[in-house]
Amino acid sequence: MTDAPTPAKATRREWIGLAIIALPCLVYAMDLTVLNLALPAISAELQPTASQLLWIVDVYGFLVAGFLITMGTLGDRIGRRKLLLVGAAAFAIASLVAAFSCTAETLIAMRALLGVAGATLAPSTLSLIRNMFHDEHERQFAIGVWIAAFSVGGAIGPLVGGVLLQWFWWGAVFLAAVPVMVLLLVLGPKLLPEYRDPDAGKLDPASMVQSLLAVLAVVYGLKRIAEYGADGRGIAALLAGTVLGVLFVRRQRHLPYPFLDVALFRRRAFTASIVAYSLTGLSMMGVYIFMTQYLQLVLGLTPLQAGVATIPWSVCFTVGSLLAPRLARYWGARQVMVRGLLLAAVGFGITAMVVPPYGLWILIGGMLAMSIGLAPVMTVGNELIITTAPPERAGAASALSETSAELSGALGIAVLGSAGMVLFRLWLGPAMPAELDAAATARSLATLGGAIGVAGELGGAAGAALGDSARTAFTDAMRAVAVFGAAAMLLAAWMAAKLMREGEDATEAAPDAALDEASDA
């Protein structure tokens, strides 16, 4: 019996190509956060309504999530490099027009186009990595760089926005993306390989519409519930999206070339990776929204100080992503997943123990453990997702990975955010001063910021007591969400250990030898 041929090592061309595709990923993530600091200037100049301002912020993320599955499948059909370059050109043009928008309607339209163009970046770049890096360890490192680019982009978005707004007008936050996309358009054709499925069938319009509307409805419903509670519109959108999603999955079973290959979920490594990825996204986003408020409204840090306090999270996440291949080489993919999830559970557990006067340091300790644990999980998990799928379906598989991340993040904000605020209201209610009127009471129970504002207006001993009670109730709510996150990580670790048991994936028809090696580890 002959051994499988040794996979070819990447050359300088592939490593330079990796740097080229990491840059648009950084811009893609940065665009999710860079706009926040510019909102006051945009409001003053364009004078959008409250609804328009909400759409300026949200439409980008909505359409990114909605088009991921479509773009992943489209890249497998027309070529992943071609789709990436088309998306980069559209992103650059939309960024230019957005920067010089004269009306709120134009800015909303350009943010929507940026979302559609941004949806081409993640699945195209991740699937291209599979074509560029055939050695398992090199591919894991490349995916670690890819994930680190997203992490750094999200972290530096507010910083870049702040620097640009210090010296230029609000449109400059969009112009930062243009030179990166131009660089990709110039060097991409020379450095990136092209790959398409030669046997791909026709694009199914019904599947495209179903997947788009299902994801948009679910994301909108979750965001609506997170902002307004369980109102009728949010619940209706969530139910409609779920029904469309079920119809979409059922349709895929009867298509010769489906958008979503349901058979992939029969592979244990694929299922374990998707579940772990989703649970980490849900838990991380659910607790992160409480952390940022805790730093400013409970501990009293300035926005700059709060940003500095989150730097260790980003640094450790980046380091953990880059160390993942070395860890996988010594422990194997299964052990990296399980041990990373267990470490993340410890991080959530540390966060659940936040108490004064050491709240800042305990929180930073929890963030460090979470980021170090989750980064290798996401790196190895993504590697398993794209290598478990057949090479011709890598684009669709990577799109499914990113879609699960988007949906789980939105679910974490909506469900865990809402649940945490329910606990906040439950624990703060008994401490409300009797002299407050109904409007002030409602404002205090709505958000921590509202409660602190009412406490300041009330003044005196009663105001100080209300402020202290609000901060304590919010801290307890954050701790409860962290406990849920720890439980979710333990569940994900148990599932990864069970589904990726040694030797089980080796019996599956996985064509990629590197996947068999990772699954058998």
Sum up the structure in keywords:
521 residues, mainly alpha, Growth Hormone, Chain: A, 2 domains
Describe this structure in words.
It is a single chain. The chain has 521 residues and is mostly helical. The protein folds into two domains: 13-201, Growth Hormone, Chain: A (Up-down Bundle); 263-410 and 479-521, MFS general substrate transporter like domains (Growth Hormone, Chain: A, Up-down Bundle), CATH 1.20.1250. 79% of the residues lie in helices and 0% in strands. It is built from 21 helices and no strands. The protein has helices at residues 12-33, 39-46, 50-78, 80-99, 104-118, 121-132, 136-167, 172-175, 177-191, 205-228, 232-252, 268-298, 303-309, 311-331, 333-351, 359-388, 394-428, 438-446, 448-458, 460-499, 513-520. Helix 6 (121-132) packs across helix 17 (394-428) and helix 17 packs antiparallel against helix 20 (460-499). The longest helix is centred in the C-terminal third of the chain and has 40 residues, at 460-499. It is globular. The two termini are 21 Å apart. The model is unreliable at 502-521 (pLDDT under 50).
